[in-house]
Amino acid sequence: MLIDSHCHLDRLDLSKHGDSLSALLDDARSVGVKRFLCVCISKENKDQVVSIAREHEGVFASVGVHPSDVANSSVDKRTLIDWAKEANVVAIGETGLDYHYGKENKELQLESFTVHLLAASECQLPVIVHTREAQQDTLDLIRRYANLETAGVLHCFTESWEMAQAAIDMNFFISISGIVTFKNAAQLREVAAKVPSDRLLIETDSPYLAPVPFRGKPNQPKYVHEVAKFVADLRGVSYEQLLEQTASNFFNLFKKAC
Questions:
Q1: DSSP helix/strand/coil, 101
Q2: How many CA atoms lie within 13 A of 30 on its CB side?
Q3: DSSP string of 178-228, one letter each residue
Q4: Does domain 2-257 have CATH number 3.20.20.140?
Q5: Are the C-beta atoms of 81 and 120 separated by less than 8 Å?
Q6: pTM above 0.70, yes or no
Q7: Span 59-96, pLDDT tens digits
Q8: Within 13 Å and on the Cβ side, how many CA atoms surround 45?
Q9: CA 12 from centroid of its chain's CA atoms
């Protein structure tokens, strides 16, 4: 089973699908994509993300506030816990730390990430982590506040193998996006080749970061099959093996999606 473990269905360009999300999802299903995790990034899009998961077969939702949104969309632990009770919500996030674009909000990001980790622990849900140029702080907060049984995933991973290994040692998964197909992604290809098979996920992060040969165009869940093919070749396994393993990993992590 092919699964897009991280996408933003509320932000997709639907113009080539008659402005219909259902048609776009059917297009993805035509190449074998059977499950989609629609990821929340703010208070403003939470209701739409949850509605999409409720209204479309095979779609699940997360709830949380992206580190780039913390200045305008902070949320407390109680609110996150209440959000997590809604139908088809299988994870907390997207949360984390981004010092590339938002270092001026570092303290707000640290506080928000901590709140998300505590809420995820209390809800017994995995956490979806965005991390960019914040390796040590990300690992330190996970080590201090995460529930390492329910754990989580470092999504759209672009950091070092050392960071990936440290996260894996804490029971986290590593998710590979279309960035792995880019010419300048040698470090990421090393990570994608080394991640243990039972810790690997694949995603699109659509509508962002479309893989080669669609780079520069709006991304969509259908293109997760390009990520899967590339990663399978990189790891020296068959496409079918890669799909079977990553699907198994998805359901092992996001247990409420079963």
A1: coil
A2: 7
A3: GGGGSTT-HHHHHHHHHS-GGGEEE---TTS-PPTTSTTS---GGGHHHHH
A4: yes
A5: no
A6: yes
A7: 999 999 999 999 888 899 999 999 999 999 999 999 99
A8: 21
A9: 16
